[in-house]
Design brief:
two-stranded antiparallel sheet, two-stranded parallel ribbon, single chain, mainly alpha
Length: 438
């Protein structure tokens, strides 16, 4: 390109975040979610804000049966639709799981199912609670001008689990926030590869590896803010779906929408777009049933976020670029990203071990021994037996996570294993027993 006689090298941005409705400040997080809907939707918000109390008094189902059938035509903006989806999905989970796994329902009443499916269709989301609801669009700052920190954050709507539920959703939100610099650097990598700019790609990969480490540090705060017995015994069931769940093997009929039952997976970390982006960028291949599950989870993301992942997947291969350039700093930066992703997934495995595997083992033991139970152990023993070996998304959780971790290792150019092995279960159990929950 020639501007007033001066030769300028063209380096147009090939891919931008804005095109996919991704924020420079918040990434996949919905910036400044609405806290209320137009007054016409007061019946939804009144119930949505009191779901926990209504479940506790066993009166949520009755409230929803008496709820008027409202039109969704007055929901005009994206933020209104997101808050409506959050409120309707929280009500749906409460309605289905009010009495635990033994007294589930087969039909969702039309006062809830009809508007829920309409809002879902407009957003391109499924009619069930998703990561896009509970984490990305379910937060507010206590002090609007204050920092984006645990101490200054609150949930808009909640489910049973008290402070542990707040901790679970908000720690996950902070993991999303920690990913933002890495997400922006994905764009720099793609453009750097296109323009054969080794320095640009190397710097961007360094930023991605730092971002992945920040995500890991944020994730570790689960230990600080979430009580494993409450997560296992109370929170998990209310995030569970009606696909691959023996408690609801026939799915759920959405009255007034379809006479046939529909099946949808519950909330899952696999519904977060972040790791999908990093996997596609680094060339991590997930095969077989695990790969199919991860692909299916993309249908539970806002469509523009799913499209961004697909855009990364069709860009020229970063891995091939690194191999072809044979540049030491570039290769080291790439390998550091892969190693960081393995580390992050090991951290997730350790958390799942402490929050699911160990409590599941303890619950089986308690049921077998029929002991007089202390309050904390009673919470664990009442957890749904159908979910003992599964994640809330329906996957066989530990096998799934370890396979995904191992497939991440396989994308390394020179196998990067030093320091990234997970500790044995005995060590995890020992460290878990020594951790205290504030």
């Amino acid at each position: 390109m020639n501007i007033m006689g001066t030769e300028v090298k063209t380096t147009a941005t090939l891919v931008s975040l804005r095109k996919f409705h991704i924020s420079d400040e918040c990434g996949f997080i919905l910036p400044e979610p609405l806290m209320d809907l137009p007054v016409y939707y007061k019946p939804w918000m009144d119930i949505g804000r009191n779901v926990t109390e209504l479940i506790s008094s066993h009166s949520l189902r009755l409230k929803i049966h008496n709820m008027p059938l409202l039109t969704t035509d007055l929901l005009r903006t994206h933020r209104e639709l997101r808050l409506a989806h959050l409120a309707l999905s929280v009500m749906t989970m409460g309605y289905v799981w009010q009495e635990g796994e033994k007294e589930t329902v087969k039909v969702l009443p039309q006062s809830l199912s009809v508007p829920f499916c309409e809002v879902s269709q407009r957003l391109g989301l499924p009619p069930i609670l998703t990561h896009a609801d509970t984490v990305l669009a379910n937060w507010k700052k206590t002090d609007p001008n204050g920092p984006f920190t645990m101490e200054n954050l609150e949930l808009l709507l909640s489910l049973p689990g008290g402070q542990s539920l707040r901790g679970f959703f908000l720690v996950t939100l902070l993991v999303e926030l920690a990913a933002v610099p890495g997400l922006k650097s994905v764009i720099d990598v793609i453009n750097g590869v296109h323009y054969n700019d080794i320095e640009r790609v190397t710097k961007a990969l360094d930023m991605i590896s730092q971002s992945i480490d920040s995500m890991k540090q944020a994730l570790k705060r689960m230990h600080e803010y979430v009580d494993p017995s409450i997560f296992y015994g109370i929170i998990r069931i209310h995030l569970s779906g009606w696909k691959d769940n023996p408690s609801m093997a026939d799915g759920l009929v959405y009255e007034g929408v379809d006479d046939q039952p529909m099946e949808f997976s519950g909330g899952s970390a696999a519904q977060s777009s972040i790791l999908h982006c990093f996997d596609e960028l680094l060339g991590v291949q997930h095969e077989g049933n695990n790969g199919a599950f991860l692909k299916r989870m993309r249908d539970y993301m806002p469509p523009s976020h799913k499209q961004f992942i697909q855009e990364i997947s069709i860009c020229p291969s970063l891995r091939n670029f690194v191999l072809q350039q044979a540049d030491e700093r570039l290769t080291r930066a790439f390998e550091k990203c892969v190693a960081g992703l393995v580390d992050f997934r090991n951290c997730h495995i350790n958390i799942v071990t402490r929050f699911i595997t160990i409590p599941a083992s303890r619950a089986k033991q308690l049921r077998a021994n029929k002991q007089n139970l202390a309050e904390e152990l009673d919470t664990i023993s009442r957890a749904p037996t159908a979910l003992e070996e599964r994640g809330t998304g329906g996957s066989g959780i530990m096998t799934f996570l370890k396979t995904v971790r191992n497939e991440t290792k396989d994308s390394s150019i020179s196998v990067f294993t030093n320091g990234n092995q997970e500790p044995p279960v005995k060590e995890i159990e020992k460290s878990a027993s020594e951790l205290t929950i504030e």
